[in-house]
Amino acid sequence: MATDTTSNIASEFEEIDGELPDSVDEGTIERMRIVAHTLDEGIRVPLTDFRIGIDPIVGILPGAGDTAAAIVSLYIVAEAARMGVSRSALLRMVANVGIDAVGGSVPVLGVLFDSFWKANKWNLRLALEDLAEDGDETETGPDVVTVD
């Protein structure tokens, strides 16, 4: 099971420069990844490569569905804050959740919007990138210049 977790986290880093600091809890990142995947890409649309999550499905319920999805989305933001993600990244993450909630609440078109706006996936990526950047600074120091 540990190798599955490591490979899932590693797959999130394929396009991210840097490494996570040792202080980051991999279990927390895996839970964040599961929530993001479930909300944004948990179900493959038959006969296509397109994936949707439960966000657009619960968004069918007027008001309550998008509110519930936004509350669950805030879990990723809360965990990112607990792990020390920068304030600017957290603000962008909250903005993504807000856009998702407002855009998804539009009758009929909101379901389509939720199918394409992958706020949770983006928020996970923002958190990982921010943590990786912080990890790079701690290794060399923020003001240290290295010459190759």
Write the layout of secondary structure elements.
Blueprint: H1 2-12, H2 26-41, E1 43-44, E2 51-52, H3 54-58, H4 64-83, H5 87-104, H6 109-116, H7 119-140
Antiparallel strand pairs: 1-2
Mean pLDDT: 83
Quickly give the structural class: mainly alpha
The proportion of residues in beta strands is under 5%
Helical residue percent band: 55-70%
What does this structure look like?
With 148 residues, the chain is mostly helical. It has one domain (2-14, 23-134). 68% of the residues lie in helices and 3% in strands. It is built from 7 helices and 2 strands. The chain has a two-stranded antiparallel sheet. The chain is globular and about 45 Å long. The protein starts with a helix and ends in an 8-residue tail after the last helix.
Quick tags:
148 residues; mainly alpha; disordered N terminus
What's a concise summary of this model?
The protein is mainly alpha-helical and 148 residues long. The chain has one domain (2-14, 23-134). The protein has helices spanning 2-12, 26-41, 54-58, 64-83, 87-104, 109-116, 119-140; strands spanning 43-44, 51-52.
